[in-house]
Amino acid sequence: MRTDSEVAFLLVSFVLIVLIFFALIVFIYIAYFRLREIFDGLSNSSGVIGKKKYLGWDPFSRFYIITTVGALIMFSQQSLRTGELDLQDYQLLPVRLKRIIMAYSWSMLILGVFAVALILVGKSMNWIN
């Protein structure tokens, strides 16, 4: 028989998996339908130009590019200061696209931290062997 805390852990784990799945769907949308718009909008940014050579049709190279662009936009002040992001490119990038990239990047970061915390709690309570 399961305790209430084990059932809660299982439900939270299920919700986390669903949220990660939803974030992956957003990633696929960005990676295969909006990547050209990102490259066109950030054509003068050295942090994006250098990564363009790694682009292939596989999801892993696209994940790498989207993660890099997401980090540049998430930490735009530092990226602008170091020169990896061009100010004019950043200002001309469509606001809706910036919001989508930011939402995806922050959600993946938060979901990743939450997943690690959930695994640590599960291991410490011996719910995960």
Please explain how this structure is put together.
With 129 residues, this protein is mostly helical. The chain has one domain. The protein has 6 helices and no strands. Helix 3 (59-74) crosses helix 6 (95-124). The chain starts with a helix and ends in a 5-residue tail after the last helix. The model has no long low-confidence stretch (mean pLDDT 89).
Low-confidence stretches: none
Largest sheet: none
SS-based class: mainly alpha
- Helix run count: 6
Give the overall form.
elongated
Overall tally of domains: 1
Q: Kindly estimate the percentage of residues that lie in beta strands according to DSSP.
A: under 5%
Q: How helical, in percent, are the residues? A: over 70%
Q: What is the radius of gyration computed over CA atoms, rounded to a whole number of angstroms?
A: 18 Å
Average pLDDT value? 89
Helix and strand pattern: HHHHHH
Termini Cα gap = 17 Å
SSE layout and pairings?
Layout: H1 4-41, H2 46-49, H3 59-74, H4 76-82, H5 87-92, H6 95-124
Helix pairs in contact: 1-3, 1-6, 3-4, 3-6
Q: How would you describe this structure in keywords?
A:
129 residues, elongated, 6 helices
Could you write a compact summary of the structure shown?
The protein is an all-alpha fold. The protein has helices at 4-41, 46-49, 59-74, 76-82, 87-92, 95-124.
